[in-house]
Q: What sequence folds into this?
């Protein structure tokens, strides 16, 4: 008998095993119930029961006598076992902590880091009650059809070495979204925009100890399949989602798995020394502020002028009308109406 392709990879969760085995089938062809029962060391009725439970959770299987089962539909929200099955499928080994509901995935990652959990790990929720933006702002996190994700690392590197991390991940995410048909731009330093509307926000938080970055959490809220009515009225003209731009995403679980892997790879890349040049090269393609009139703020510094790219340190260059060049190392830039 041929072994199921992901045999042994995740024996601790039979549902992940079943879903992983079904996903591994070419063209989603049939997988025999007998084979699943043997691999999992449970009865065929046991397999059937598990599939029934998964059906209740929003999965759809086609069952054909003498051929077995085929996965024909999956839940529209993230699901722990399916997310893990997709991570296995794309070859990622990042462990994921999944919750239906959390205060904030960044806060949960912070708690887990404080508890000593080995890194990297990801935290995913289907809803957040206290989704956080920057500077005390709020991230709307009611809709189950969007991604709320944090990935945690322990760099133990000087702050200086990690200064480009957030912009680097942002550019990589824009590139990833472009490849999927979305003309996304990065609005320095942490917004991802499509057609001038906010598709995603990133929140990078770090614990620094005498210039050494000990803990690092990269959080992203990405609007995937939500409609305009899913955000408060005041955001309806400024926010967007992938569904609103190019149509529904078929598998939010696959998208989440791909993002987790992308963020982890981008983290590894930024630990090396080679991203500065590539970031400069990629920046003009994804720069959401290039040539636009902005008002910038960083601490007490207020500047106004034309956004003109970033420095090698990742600072936003703002050229004022009098020809002065200002650098914003952190803070915010808003478009002048
Ligand atoms: C951000 O802050 O854009 C960073 C958002 C990061 C959210 C993720 S979700 C997973 C992880 N866990 C967390 O608790 N947070 C991270 P900022 O640049 O401050 O932008 C916040 C502003 O974006 C708000 O004041 C609104 O104007 C707007 N906004 C809020 N929710 C939105 C949404 N769902 N879609 C589009 N815009 C939104």
A:
């Amino acid at each position: 008998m041929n072994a199921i392709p992901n045999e042994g990879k995740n024996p601790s969760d039979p549902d992940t095993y079943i879903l992983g085995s079904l996903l591994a089938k070419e063209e989603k062809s049939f997988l025999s119930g007998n084979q699943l029962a043997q691999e999992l060391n449970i009865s065929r009725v046991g397999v059937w029961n598990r599939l029934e439970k998964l059906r209740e959770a929003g999965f759809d299987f086609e069952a054909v006598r003498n051929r077995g089962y085929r996965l024909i539909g999956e839940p529209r929200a993230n699901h722990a076992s399916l997310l893990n099955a997709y991570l296995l499928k794309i070859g990622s080994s990042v462990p994921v902590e999944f919750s239906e509901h959390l205060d904030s995935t960044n806060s949960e990652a912070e708690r887990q880091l404080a508890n000593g959990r080995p890194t990297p790990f990801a935290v995913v929720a289907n809803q957040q009650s206290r989704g956080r933006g920057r500077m005390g702002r709020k991230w709307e996190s009611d809709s189950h059809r969007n991604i709320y994700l944090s990935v945690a690392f322990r760099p133990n590197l000087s702050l200086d070495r990690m200064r480009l991390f957030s912009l680097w991940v942002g550019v990589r995410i824009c590139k990833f979204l472009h490849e999927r048909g979305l003309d996304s731009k990065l609005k320095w330093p942490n917004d991802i925009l499509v057609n001038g509307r906010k598709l995603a926000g990133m929140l990078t938080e770090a614990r620094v100890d005498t210039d050494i970055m000990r803990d690092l959490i990269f959080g992203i809220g990405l609007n995937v399949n939500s409609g305009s009515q899913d955000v408060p009225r005041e955001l309806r003209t400024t926010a967007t989602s992938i569904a609103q731009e190019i149509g529904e995403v078929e598998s939010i679980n696959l998208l989440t798995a791909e993002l987790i892997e992308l963020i982890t790879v981008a983290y590894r890349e930024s630990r090396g020394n080679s991203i500065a040049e590539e970031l400069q090269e990629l920046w003009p393609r994804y720069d959401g502020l290039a040539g636009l009139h902005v008002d910038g703020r960083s601490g007490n510094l207020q500047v106004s002028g034309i956004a003109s790219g970033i420095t090698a340190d990742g600072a936003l260059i703002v050229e004022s009308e009098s020809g002065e060049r200002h650098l914003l190392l952190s803070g915010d830039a808003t478009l002048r109406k």
Q: What stands out?
A: The pocket of biotinyl-5-AMP is lined by residues 104-106, 128, 131-135, 137-140, 148-150, 190-191, 198, 201-203, 219-221, 223, 231, 235, 239 (CB under 6 Å).
